[in-house]
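Entry for the shared binder. Reason: the reviewer on the internal report wants the predicted structure included alongside the sequence.
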Amino acid sequence: MTIDYVKYSPTGNVTLLVTSPVPREDHGTVAAALLERLGGEQVGYVEPPRDDRAAARLQMMGGEFCGNATMSLGALLTREAVAAHVVLEVSGSEGLVPCDIRRHGQGWVGTVKMPVPTAIRTVTLPRDGGMVTAPLVELPGIAHLILPMDGNLGEAQLRRRLPEWNAAIGADALGALLWDEAASAIDPLVCVPSAGTLVRENGCGSGSAAVGCWLARRSGHDVRADIRQPGGTIAVDARLRDGAFTSVSITGRVTLVEEGQVDI
């Protein structure tokens, strides 16, 4: 099978966008092969939209939602424009997802309107030597645990525990965000069970949105914050009215890494 792809780096969260038609039942297998051959952290498939108001559909490798991949597709669709507004269908989101893109140097700056949380709750889960209690932010298509950076939860333990935790939580994808509040920084590890991946990500758009929403809910007012991560910074804007979220958006930078074809 010959695959056409474009590789982007949205805040270091290297994303392969497949522009060739690939049957849904082959998405997981093809994604694993592409990541092994080409490197990267995730794969999304560009498909025709079902809704004629959308410019395209982004179907992620495990059916999850991804803000960074959405931003990357926005850059792909508007690469010749100075600035543009596109509306997309994205797996994991029931509604259409607006994305604003503008040229910035050799890359782009993108803002994605994210789905609002379906729930923010506290969960208690087993860990080595006891239990851990943490906020869980549930977004359409993905959920995120916000864990203390200094909580003695190393990467090796998280890799062992995340699939078990996700089985209990039942999300399409589950992120573990090691959170350093003093530095406003996260270190994300994301498990996508249907794709068989567990990746330490350099940048996580939905994780950044999750932290912003949790901070807003905790404080009871709007939050605009820059969330640092290994690959750079993602800005989040979470707005509340009468305790309910009215909008959540993330803004980050996207660069083109390469494009080409590969036989798998």
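Summary line for the report: Residues 155-169 form the longest helix (15 residues).
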